[in-house]
Amino acid sequence: MAGHPFDPLSASELEDATRLVRKSYGSDLKFNVVSLQEPRKTVMRAWLADPKSNPKPPRVADVVVIDNNATVHEGLVDLDQGKVLAWDKLEGEQPIITLEEQQKVEQICREDPEVIKQCEISGMLASDMHKIYCDTWVVGYDERWGISRRLQQALMYYRPTPDSFQYQYALDFCPLYDPDLEQIVHIDIPKVRRPLRKDVPPIGYTPADVQKLGGYRDDMKPIIISQPEGVSFSMNGRELSWQNWKMHVGFNYKEGIVLNNIRWKSRNESEDRGIFYRMSLAEMVVPYAEPEPPHHRKHAFDFGEYGAGYMTNSLALGCDCKGAIHYIDAEVPTRNGGVRLIENAICIHEEDSGILFKHTDFRDDSVVVTRGRKLVIQQIFTAANYEYAIQWIFHQDGTIQPEIKLTGILNTYVQAPGENCDWGTQVYPGVNAHFHQHLFCLRLDANIDDGPNTVYTSDTMASDEPVGSLKNPYGNAFFAKKTKLSTTGQAKTDYDAMTMRSWDIVNDSKINSSSGKPSSYKLVSREVPRLLPKEGSLVWKRAGFARHHVYVTKYRDDQLWPAGRHVPQTSGEPSRGLPEWIGDGSESVENEDVVLWHTFGLTHIPAPEDFPVMPAEPVTLLLRPRHFFDRNPALDVPPSYLTLPSQIEKGERTAAYDATDKMSKPAFGGEEKTIPIVGGGGGCCSKL
Amino acid sequence: MAGHPFDPLSASELEDATRLVRKSYGSDLKFNVVSLQEPRKTVMRAWLADPKSNPKPPRVADVVVIDNNATVHEGLVDLDQGKVLAWDKLEGEQPIITLEEQQKVEQICREDPEVIKQCEISGMLASDMHKIYCDTWVVGYDERWGISRRLQQALMYYRPTPDSFQYQYALDFCPLYDPDLEQIVHIDIPKVRRPLRKDVPPIGYTPADVQKLGGYRDDMKPIIISQPEGVSFSMNGRELSWQNWKMHVGFNYKEGIVLNNIRWKSRNESEDRGIFYRMSLAEMVVPYAEPEPPHHRKHAFDFGEYGAGYMTNSLALGCDCKGAIHYIDAEVPTRNGGVRLIENAICIHEEDSGILFKHTDFRDDSVVVTRGRKLVIQQIFTAANYEYAIQWIFHQDGTIQPEIKLTGILNTYVQAPGENCDWGTQVYPGVNAHFHQHLFCLRLDANIDDGPNTVYTSDTMASDEPVGSLKNPYGNAFFAKKTKLSTTGQAKTDYDAMTMRSWDIVNDSKINSSSGKPSSYKLVSREVPRLLPKEGSLVWKRAGFARHHVYVTKYRDDQLWPAGRHVPQTSGEPSRGLPEWIGDGSESVENEDVVLWHTFGLTHIPAPEDFPVMPAEPVTLLLRPRHFFDRNPALDVPPSYLTLPSQIEKGERTAAYDATDKMSKPAFGGEEKTIPIVGGGGGCCSKL
Lengths: 688, 688
Fold this sequence. Notes:
In chain A, strand 19 (386-395) and strand 20 (400-408) form a beta hairpin. The first copy, chain A, is mostly beta strands. Helices cover 11% and strands 37% of the residues of chain A. Chain A folds into 3 domains: 11-89, Nuclear Transport Factor 2, Chain: A, CATH 3.10.450.40; 234-409 and 436-468 and 475-604 and 613-626, Beta-galactosidase, Chain A, domain 5, CATH 2.70.98.20; 638-688, no CATH class. Chain A contains 9 helices and 35 strands. In chain A, strands 10, 11, 12, 13, 14, 15, 24, 29 and 30 form a 9-stranded antiparallel β-sheet that branches. In chain A, strands 16, 17, 18, 19, 20, 31, 33 and 34 form an 8-stranded antiparallel β-sheet that branches.
């Protein structure tokens, strides 16, 4: 095998895996998952530490299939040895829903007599069934059927013309679909009916729609971003190097981008230090607020129920990404055992990030100005109506910044004339957008200075000493209190705005030579809504990971996804994933191989500004080195401009360092003011 | 007068004002402030509404001077009429400290026998006094002298060579300087002495310093940003137009950038709507945590004690700003009545801001991708060791995003060998950086839909109905509770992370046609530390504005600065500014001309990564239109790429809209994959 053990399964590996499974278990299986079983960590760490002496981890495919009797099996296939290692019937669980399964529902709804009847009740003509569209969601959990059969719920929309904007035209009933039977098995019909709102002028975002509103604005001049000398990063297969950062860029069906073995390796190789063994978004849940059934079922687990990898967009140069861009394709299985290529599934590029640091000496205007750079690794996925642009941003100062931009379309429901809804906003006449939350779970497999690690909370607070006391005479004393999270129980923690709580992932055995404090990375995250569905609610039971902002567990192979491996139709009794793994909370996570799970996101109370398509709303957080480096690790980034006091005193006319960007121009032409070296390198005082 | 009433005083107006004052009150006055008295709002609003029928507000200079007896006077000069309107002796208050006054201290310290003696005690040679440097701060408040005389405290540093990094070498004593006497009047000497740390290898950020660490990195390839067809904004004097935004860009000595009359004016002029009458950063305070006197005096009010305008940097094209940049100069008075020109005090430019919105239809991969743009109005000021880059960012979707990047150098103190400090971090051997906060006060003079306005808190919370009840059967109900802040007392409010509190500035008489809710702008701010010095502490008394995250007051002319007009040496008894204006809290702020004051910022627990120069740390917040527009206001931004379902169905080979950026390139060369119009406009499903 030529590839890296972290590499996703290649097309030929996918084909090998399906061929081997079919050979053993039948040729008419439907493939739900064929994906890399990630290398066992013990084996992998040994190989990474010394690839010459230690065996390379084997290539193993993780496979989930459904047979013609709707029975689900999962297994492991060793691709090196060409044999099935394990094969089990999946009972009491339901596998992910694939895009192929979602897409089939629309056609079946259009032909289903009961659906046609309901469409007529809603005010449609039976002859207009080709104008019906379905956004098909996993049913969530419905106690009438439980886990006994696979079920999808079809959110119903209407398009007067093929290019109409369906989310303006929601229908009020909800068919349930069984993908194994390929049938509508039930329709949930509200007690109070809300006819289709054809009475409102159409809206949308097509050129024709915009033309009706006055046409596109014509006053935006192009901005050109280019790197004529090439990019500053390099790729060795999927191993990326940029500005002291090293990592492997993986991808799987569930999480999309997976970053492995994130390290800081200095130019002279004097440092080669672990930071994270693995980093990904591992799950999310989107609870909606409308309590009236069946709306309570709207709480999508986009990763666990559909797969952020499966739903990943092909990105386009000059549209999704601008500048000099590197793309990586993805390959995923199809239901019939083929391979689907997602071209440009991941994009990687650099961006100028403004001033990295600056200081002017007010005495003489001697100055340093250094511009910064960031590296962005991006994926965008479409979950029916919503889009999520996930950016993994790396900075030169050692900061890692996961950022998600939310855009796309609101999930909508029909609002009757004169109706008022306590749990949604009428974003356009007749269009109700229910309140909802987007709660993402970031999984950080910590490896600070190659571990073991311990997590602490850090709370800034006033000294206990009263104002006027000997130790606090003027009352200004404050500090950061560090609390060790010794067990999984203690580690269930929440954000505290009173103390601006952050979390430190610490290697207590690696002491910083400057500060005498242990090496750490700090999680700084402020976009941390609580799970608003109440304790004991269906969502609370199913999304155990979202009950607290931070959990810490001891690393175990295959504990990857915090709502569990098979999320569809879980009842939450018991809660799967994190709550199972934590149990009674007594396990030690002190000085161990630890995983930190962090839930963050936003609560979305829609407004008309979000319709018909939402301006991207960012959610971000920072992972910052603290006591990890013994000085500013970006000190060696070349400045744009630097002058010295001694030069200014001597009246020298050149800067000590001048890499001013000569391509920058005054906005309205005219003379560029040259930087005056004597008395005025950016400062304020030389002309006094 | 040809200029705009919001324009700062021009050089000739500054000269007129000083000439008129000197004529009346003597030629040897020292000028502390000569600045525009902002137009009275009633007169100004009338003129803005109908400049033909209503008088243009007069040009009035606000002047503060100090005479040879150290007596301070302040007055108003009508520049149209050429006469002094008011002239008063300032008693019980001290004016701002100017850069000129700060710069003088160093020379006087070098020659002061007592300072020389203390330097010798610290381990310096008396012959090395030219190696002494002072960062001179306002004394803050010291009860030994109170407000009776002007006092500055000199934080002492040493430079072995002129280009050495002084913040590595702090001295342990603190001279107090009287700028009126031009003398050192006292030296605060600690009980336990800490000699100068010459025992540690020097560090710094000059090329020579970096050379010792291995030299600059050489693997950063240039990124070129250009606008060959020019910029998309225009300037009429200081009135700026960009993408439906209109505003006036002002500047004063205290706040730096002041934005006035911020409006949304659509292309076809069907809308011309007020948002903010005035927006600025109005004050800040930086309390340090070390309780041992005299460190308690370190709590700089950088705006009120020194002036963010006075300390503003001249910005350099291609260093501070990249791309196509427009600059505006500033002119401020000198102590002797002259004019100091700050070239390029403000820069204005556009940036690509990534995806503005995107949606892919998972059925056929029909797609819209629209890239966004932001406008940045920036100022950078140097407050002795720290730099603050203040960006006022405007987005096409109606969002306003004030953002501050903090960089520069930590304030440092000497740390003795083996010493441990509970209130600071040893960021480098011998260098103690005390914990501190940066609390900024954003002043929003609200004008949502041309007022009057009311402020509400908005708290997302679960329904009161229990899980399993008729109204909340599955427990998922939640909503945003709105609480009207009717009086100034009720409006003293704080962030609540449990509810992700935001604040809505509402025009209750302007109802959104889509939602039926009133027009508003929402303040979304998460970087909101509490003032950590305790209630009753010196800082708590002096920085009354920082006790709560939000205050609302009824607009009054001249209530601009929340710690008061003259901040130096205030005792906080009584607290000046906001606490005075609010009084007993009974005044109505419901449906009034209201001003919202918001304190935000960060608590900085330093680490070695912040030394010797700090990587820029951003603090940001959002002002978002909610129910202000009846749809996404950026819907008419031309897409990069748009395809229609009907096109894909017909197999057309062209997009409905294609403005793909053809200058973008693959990072490592090779073929660009063209966007396939049929089945794959960025989507995920066409290849199933």
